[in-house]
Amino acid sequence: MNINFVCLGNTCRSPMAEFIMKNLVQQAGLADKISVSSSGTFADEFSHIHCGTCHELTKHEIPFDDNRVSKRFRRADYSKYDLIIGMDVGNIWDIKNIVGGDPDNKIFLMMSFCGENRDVDDPYYTDKYSVTYNDINRACKALLKKISQS
Predict the structure, then answer these.
(1) Out of 90, 98, 131, 143, which residue is the most buried by the measure of CB atoms under 10 Å away?
(2) Is 12 among the catalytic positions?
(3) Of 77, 94, 119, 122, which is the active-site residue?
(4) Does the annotation count 13 as an active-site position?
(5) pTM above 0.85, yes or no
(6) Which of 7, 12, 54, 140 is catalytic?
(7) Residue 109: its pLDDT value, please?
(8) Sign of the C-alpha dihedral computed for residues 146, 55, 14 and 81 taken in this order
(9) How many other β-carbons are positioned within 10 Å of the β-carbon of residue 75?
(10) Residues 13, 88, 135, 140: which is the catalytic one?
(11) How far apart are CA 82 and CA 3, in angstroms?
């Protein structure tokens, strides 16, 4: 199972989701079965993880690579992943625009795994990294549960 989390710039929400999910997968002993990455629809490929995201991950003792740089979601990425998870409806629209649709039904809104049809707020604009962390952590746990049951 290959999962890619996608946001706008790949500096706040999607790397937060990447490292939360990697940690959950590792704790569940599924690292050999589930691969996790992240990207952004308009990522500046020289940007690092935002310091607010690093602070929030550190606060919750989630290991992360603060030297990684953002990467852009590309059309060819669609075939690489089993699940492509956007943080908000704008990301979903951008992903489908880049790919040309979703013929394999593998693009999902992050909070849909919690049964909620809403966005994960972008802390780059809200500065509420703890709120974003709580949403993403809850959704990642629900996603892992769903994967584990299938």
Answers:
(1) 143
(2) no
(3) 122
(4) yes
(5) yes
(6) 7
(7) 98
(8) negative
(9) 10
(10) 13
(11) 6
